[in-house]
Design brief:
Elements: H1 2-24, E1 27-32, H2 40-55, E2 60-65, H3 73-82, E3 87-91, H4 114-121, H5 124-134, E4 138-148, E5 150-153, E6 168-171, H6 175-183, E7 187-190, H7 196-201, E8 207-210, H8 212-217, E9 226-228, E10 234-242, H9 243-247, H10 251-285, E11 289-291, H11 295-301, H12 303-313, H13 315-323
Parallel strand pairs: 1-2, 1-3, 6-7, 6-8, 9-11
Antiparallel strand pairs: 3-10, 4-10, 5-8, 5-9
Helix pairs in contact: 2-10
The protein binds (2R,3R)-2,3,4-trihydroxybutanoic acid (EAX).
């Protein structure tokens, strides 16, 4: 009898220990991204976390891991699929390895201005892209902005497409991006972002391409002399959360997260726009030499990429993004 009491007490204690933190403690969303703590992603995510804390009265907490602390963008997407990571903010380019619906945004010069990109991402095209991830267990909360990508390198100023030939350029893992630089005669090197600074520093690659805000906050100006304002790709960012995790939350918590994702999206997009005006001057002051290449010539030079991918992406989808 005594022993039974002891066992029962133990069981109650163990159960109690297990349940108490669950009842009292917040639900944790661990969110990984690859950029620096002063990047547009991180600032937007801090606001996102604040909004969620407010809207759920602290029931849900977002813990942000910057600088690829929990892995590359591909690792993070896989983590969200497997449920080993709750959420991530990634460029849409690596998502093309999981769903072809994303490829259209990777075409060079397809997005001419932000208003067009936002209308497409917040409308039918964005819905289609989000839907294509659902059967993988990924819920897309919103499309944020990474930005218009600019080319940097350590070898020479870029004015014309021919200047790119022969350069080793690090790219995101994306078939359309790779094809674009191959058509320009460059040697494309796919590599996770977390390895990029060292690769540039050690000259394993000659150059890379990223939005100005990343060139600034990841300090690429320390290891790259030449900046060409090409804006050749527009990179959206996708805020992703695991569907199974999301389903484990109450409807009120789910709504709070969804609202916060949209509010923080608008905040982050505006932050990017406001910042852009000053970035060229700042990068010049940091020692970069800036060129304004012949963009018509670049656009003409990369036309074969459209032919290469038209069948795979769909002529109607390409037209939809071009004509929004
Ligand atoms: O999504 O890998 C890249 O160059 C991306 O711009 C970065 O990871 C942010």
């Amino acid at each position: 009898m005594k022993r039974l009491c002891l066992v029962l007490t133990l069981v109650v204690c163990i159960l109690g220990l297990g349940i108490a933190p669950v009842l009292g403690a917040p639900k944790i969303i661990r969110l990984n991204h690859t950029l620096a703590p002063d990047s547009h992603y991180h600032k937007g995510l801090e606001y996102f976390a604040e909004l969620i804390a407010e809207k759920t009265n602290g029931e849900v907490e977002v813990q942000i891991f910057h600088s690829s602390q929990l892995g590359s963008e591909r690792d993070a997407i896989e983590g969200v699929i497997l449920g080993t990571l709750e959420a991530t903010l990634v460029s849409t380019a690596p998502l093309a390895n999981f769903s072809k619906q994303f490829l259209v945004f990777d075409l060079p010069f397809i997005v001419k201005d932000r208003a067009t990109a936002y209308a497409a991402l917040d409308g039918e095209l964005g819905d289609m892209m989000a839907k294509s991830l659902e059967d993988k267990g990924i819920k897309t909360l919103a499309f944020w902005e990474n930005g218009f990508r600019m080319l940097t390198n350590s070898r020479r100023p870029i004015e014309r497409p021919e200047d790119v030939a022969g350069l080793k350029i690090r790219l995101m893992e994306n078939p359309v991006h790779m094809a674009t630089f191959r058509v320009l005669g460059a040697a494309p090197v796919p590599m996770p972002f977390g390895e990029l600074f060292t690769a540039l520093q050690q000259r394993t690659v000659d150059g890379q391409e990223n939005p100005l805000v990343i060139i600034q906050t990841s300090k690429f100006y320390e290891v790259q002399k030449h900046l060409a304002l090409t804006g050749h790709f527009y990179a959206p960012a996708a805020l992703l959360i695991g569907q199974r995790f999301f389903n484990s939350l109450t409807p009120e918590q789910q709504q709070a997260i969804q609202e916060a994702a949209i509010e923080a999206r608008d905040w982050e997009r505006q932050y990017c726009i406001d910042l852009e005006a000053s970035l060229v001057a700042e990068l010049k002051a940091a020692g970069m030499e800036v060129t304004y290449p012949d963009l018509d010539a670049f656009e003409k030079a990369v036309q074969p990429v459209y032919e290469e991918f038209e069948a795979e992406i769909g002529a109607d989808v390409i037209r939809a993004l071009r004509g929004y």
